[in-house]
């Protein structure tokens, strides 16, 4: 498959998803994925797991059959200074974090406040990916964010779940983000944001967006498992 990597997936541990980690792993193997990241919501999100869950993630096997499993977290940006709700102890055993804004944790501010929140979050050494930044209820200066992502060698997510019932109105914003990533050479990653195993690896609308603007494949981190090399370059995945 063209995009054998999905780093944004959830299980029943997040409180509003519907399958277990074992079910997600088995489906990913059946679908032919090479890398699956499990990324539960961090503790500030209602229904999410205790911080001990993330501290204990070394219990999750690194590999099952031919599937590499990455231990992640979807951290919540909790203020306009870009602070997240996982500290260094909490992420010590993680491979990566996505940083996202959710209205349950942070109300949308001004364009300047929201932009600062995303840009400052990139200063966290474990935040490698900005999650679903196209949500129209959190307006941002996309050019400023994309340029910061490029400068800090981080990644922007194109979230396929944003084109359904969640985050309605995101598509046009995501097209703008993708165009800016192409313009500035910023890395992106396609994510399913699956809350049930059957959505894992579903990037259908995201692919349509990339194809419509002739997005350069060298900037897509799902291809050829290049996310592994990227994370290794950041000092992670020493056991791979």
Automatic annotation (TrEMBL):
Residues 5-79 form the Polymerase/histidinol phosphatase N-terminal domain. GO terms for cellular component: cytosol. GO terms for molecular function: phosphoric ester hydrolase activity; zinc ion binding. It comes from the Bacteria. CDD domains: PHP_HisPPase_Ycdx_like. NCBIfam families: PRK09248.1. This is PHP domain protein. It comes from Clostridium cellulovorans (strain ATCC 35296 / DSM 3052 / OCM 3 / 743B).
């Amino acid at each position: 498959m063209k995009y054998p990597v999905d780093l944004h997936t959830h299980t029943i541990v997040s409180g509003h998803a519907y399958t277990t980690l074992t079910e997600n792993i088995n489906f990913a193997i059946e679908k032919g994925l090479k890398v699956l990241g499990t990324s539960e919501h961090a503790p500030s999100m209602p229904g999410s797991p205790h911080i001990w869950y993330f501290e204990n993630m070394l219990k999750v096997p690194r590999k099952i059959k031919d599937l590499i499993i990455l231990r992640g977290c979807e951290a919540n940006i909790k203020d306009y200074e870009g602070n997240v709700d996982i500290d260094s102890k909490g992420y010590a055993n993680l491979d990566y974090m996505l940083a996202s804004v959710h209205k349950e944790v942070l109300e949308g501010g001004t364009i300047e406040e929201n932009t600062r929140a995303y840009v400052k979050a990139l200063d966290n050494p474990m935040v490698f990916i900005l999650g679903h930044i196209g949500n129209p209820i959190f307006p941002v200066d996309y050019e400023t964010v994309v340029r910061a992502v490029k400068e800090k060698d981080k990644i922007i997510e194109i979230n396929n779940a944003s084109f359904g019932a969640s985050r309605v109105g995101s598509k046009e914003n995501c097209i703008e983000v993708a165009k800016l990533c192409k313009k500035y050479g910023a890395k992106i990653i396609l994510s399913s944001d699956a809350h049930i195993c059957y959505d894992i690896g579903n990037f259908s609308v995201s692919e349509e967006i990339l194809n419509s603007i002739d997005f350069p494949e060298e900037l897509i981190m799902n291809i050829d498992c290049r996310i592994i090399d990227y994370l290794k370059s950041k000092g992670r995945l020493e056991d791979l």
